[in-house]
Amino acid sequence: MRMLSQEEENDDGAEVTWEDQQRINTFSKLNTRLRSIEEKIQELKQEKEALDDISMELELADEDEPVMYRIGEAFIHMPHARAVKRLERDLAALNAELEKHTSNAEDCEKQMKELKVILYAKFGRAINLDE
Fold it and tell me: 35-39 contacts: CB < 8 A, separation 24 or more?
């Protein structure tokens, strides 16, 4: 780690305009949104993994026996074939939601990258936009 010299530390050469402050605020909001989206993506991936495990279990289950399928907070007895169809539908919905959140994360990252270029060009080392 390098210590800043007194000159570098007190480098107030760039004045922060209202537009710059708005860009900084936008970057901060995008960063917060991106972290939230990434957490949601992780939750969805875990849920998808659980549904994939359930799919494997249903393949091994006896087709004549009813299975307990979770809907919300409750478990319901339903025929095997109906549970398989429900699982496929739930997996498709989960994949669509995962794709939507991934796309939103990519949009946030793109906007943040554009703002970083603008802000670093003006402020250089005087601003830190990394985590």
Answer: 37/101, 37/104, 37/105, 37/108, 38/105
Count the residues in the chain.
131
Question: How far apart are the C-alpha atoms of 104 and 57, rounded to whole Å?
Answer: 33
| pLDDT 10s digits, 90-117 | 999 999 999 999 999 999 999 999 999 9
Distance CA 97, CA 95 (A): 5
- Tokens (6 digits) for 63: 């087709």
Is the Cα dihedral 56, 57, 60, 66 positive or negative? negative
Buried b (16+ CB within 10 A) or exposed e, 78-100: bebeebbebbeebbeebeeebee
For the segment 33-37, the average pLDDT, to the nearest whole number, is 97
Number of Cβ within a 10 Å radius of residue 40: 15
Q: What is the DSSP letter of 62?
A: -
